[in-house]
Amino acid sequence: MRVVVIGGGFAGMAAAIALQERRHDVVLLERRGVLGGRATSYRDTLSGEDVDNGTHLMIGAYTAALDLVARAGAGDLLLVQDHLRIDYVDDQGPSALDCPPLAAPLHLFAGLLALRLPWRVRFQALRFALAAAFGERPRGITLAEWLRRTGQGPQARRLLWDPLATAILNETPERAAAILFHTVFREAFLARHAASRLVFLRRGYGVLHERLARYLEGRGGAVRRRALAQTIDVDAGRVTGVRYVQRARSRDEIRAGARGRAERVEAEAVVSAVPWKVVPHLLPEAQRSAPPFAGLARLQGSPIVSIEMWLDRAVVDRAMVGLRDSEIEWVFDKGRLYGREGAPQHLAFIASAAYRSVPRPNAELVAAAEAALRRYFPAMASAAVTRSLVIREPDATFASDPAAETLRPGTTTPIRGLFLAGDWTDTGLPATIEGAVRSGFAAARAVEAMR
Q1: pLDDT per residue as tens digits for the range 135-144
Q2: What is the C-alpha separation between 236 and 150, in angstroms, rounded?
Q3: Out of 105, 112, 325, 386, which residue is the most buried by the measure of CB atoms under 10 Å away?
Q4: Cα–Cα dist 306/405, whole Å
Q5: Contact 40, 212 (CB under 8 A)
Q6: Do residues 355 and 303 make contact, with C-beta atoms less than 8 angstroms apart?
Q7: What is the pLDDT of residue 257?
Q8: Average pLDDT for residues 274-300, to the nearest whole number?
Q9: 379 and 407 share a domain?
């Protein structure tokens, strides 16, 4: 069966690879020259190191994503913790959630003993874990409301839940859907201890996607870059093909200002793995106002701001550190993750649900990140910032509020042969790499079911 996959992020790549492995004829269209969508990277020309469009993490519970990486033979790019450890720093100094390899959830309870917390907060955390394990699923309410119902006080939220939840959901607890955090918490902390381990990349996410593309092409699939999908052709209620503009691909063509040419590829099935805002524009006018496409306009985006910074000496001594009581929540030592320690130190700072940060000037954001370093890391007193970059993703994820859970569409659509994939579809997860990959695999299964 000829299948066209639109979008070269994790969802599209997962769908394309799964379908090609089942011996379908797969063509993947990606509008940009780089693959990865909202989880990609580029090689920095000055430092020679990869710069991600936001530092993305995986965890051991990401079974579908890790399976995809393994199938493509890219496991060497992964850096997996032996056991969960999350370092934090605040005005009292460093502390860590250091979870030994005990059976879940005992590993979490042991880790909470190591983390500098008041005993009251530890007991509240235990109460929360019990509610997640045995209580009712918190449907239709915000995470803040669920935290209140499970007896989590202000200190528990400030020191434990709010930073963790905002990083996972890219939304504040006051806005986020509780059911999403409930699902992630159960999968990560209550199933098996290895599920909570952090998984970093030894290179940028763009490098990983190139490996995935190489695997797809090695099995006979086609990846067409700079191919801007314009219309999904529909005839008598079923898809027949995709029209796109093939823009200049080589540097010589781009320099020469070569104009794009209109192309069409026939298809018996199409997997649309593009952002929710794009889907309606690919459809004929008559279908745009019909369910589930009409509801996509009501999904909102949530931003992430990343600050890449290079220092003239090493200041941060961990691969990842949570910055408590700071508007910049996390800092990553990208050089260390890439296998290089020492100067110049390449750091990446993340601000999730960054509604207030997006409109601020770059200089202010860099100054905030530098102030956090000077506040929490004494070695910064003699260090200097040599270079910085600010990366904004205004719609890094969908805004995961309770209303969004009623709008997220499933895989199948009323148009025969058209399937949806993306972390914004109804995966039961927040906007994560795992959700994207699961959606791609689900779309591939749905295509198979057409036969």
Answers
A1: 999 999 999 9
A2: 52
A3: 105
A4: 27
A5: no
A6: yes
A7: 72
A8: 91
A9: no
343 and 257 within one domain: no
Structure-token pair, residue 162: 């709010």
The span from the CA of 65 to the CA of 78, in Å, is 11
For tokens 């219309």, the residue is 231
CA neighbor of 12 nearest in space, from 331, 227, 181 = 227
CA 48: distance to chain centroid?
A: 24
Give me the pLDDT at residue 247, please. Answer: 85
Q: How buried is 384 (Cβ within 10 angstroms: 0-12 exposed, 13-18 middle, 19+ buried)?
A: exposed
Strand order in the sheet with 25-29: 222-224, 25-29, 2-6, 269-272, 418-420
Q: Residue 175 sits in which domain range?
A: 82-194
Question: Residue 438 belongs to a domain with what CATH number?
Answer: 3.50.50.60
Residues 278/296, Cβ–Cβ less than 8 Å: no
**Cα-based distances in Å from 380 to 21, 315, 336, 350:** 51, 6, 17, 19
Alpha-carbon span 410 to 422, nearest angstrom: 10
Same domain, 256 and 366: no
pLDDT tens per residue across span 148-157: 999 999 999 9
Return the residue matching tokens 């781009």.
254
Where a domain ends, among 194, 226, 244? 194
DSSP string covering 186-233: IIIIIS-GGGG-EEEESS-HHHHHHHHHHHHHHTT-EEETTEEEEEEE
174 with 307, same domain? no
- Looking at the fold, whether 287 and 413 belong to one and the same domain comes out as yes
Q: Rounded to two decimals, what is the model's pTM?
A: 0.94
